[in-house]
Amino acid sequence: MPLPDKVVLITGANGGLGTAVTSAFLGAGARVAGVARKIQNSDFPHANFTAYSAELGSADAARAVAAAVIAKWQRIDALVHLVGVFAGGKSVAETDDATLEQMIEVNLRSAFYMIRAVLPEMRARGAGRILAIGSRTAVDPQPLVGAYSASKAALISLVRTVALENKDRGISANVILPGTMDTPVNRAAMPDADPTKWVEPSQVASLLVHLASDQASQISGAVIPVLGGDL
Known about the structure:
Blueprint: E1 7-11, H1 18-27, E2 31-36, E3 49-53, H2 59-73, E4 78-81, H3 97-125, E5 128-133, H4 146-165, E6 171-178, H5 184-189, H6 201-212, E7 223-226
């Protein structure tokens, strides 16, 4: 087990990707604080799992979650931020303000709040891992997803900045850019697509576990594409 007794805070812990990631971290021996809007302990019946129901749209909510986890386990070894939302189908000229705000709110602001909430404890202890999920379109923009792509590009900048600002405190920060994920939601949304080319959530989960381990302590500021068969 590469993560014996490590305390890992996972946001979006019971989503399409989150379920695979949470299971992988539990399998690696970590103590997992799983955060989602609707989540309960029975979602992952494991002695090392604790559910935290929270909406991460505010700085206060993020600080409250971090404080609760630290109160229970005295530290946070890794933040795995999976929260995200997709919207597309319209050009930039046609994109409404509400869609833009949603992309920034969920894909960027929630990450900023959570990262900022966990950093003080990590910096004081001189160790920590920050991991986030971006998107291929952040570096390879496509038509009709402008607001989404921009929010994920901003997330990359945020994570790389965190890596630079905290490299002297034993804290690494990395972001993974998956292509289309093979999740039930995506299969339902794209019934005519070929899911054999999509990214398997278990592969992303395994990579996140490695990046959270001591074996990846020298990997920081990395932007890692995981594209499956759709190169």
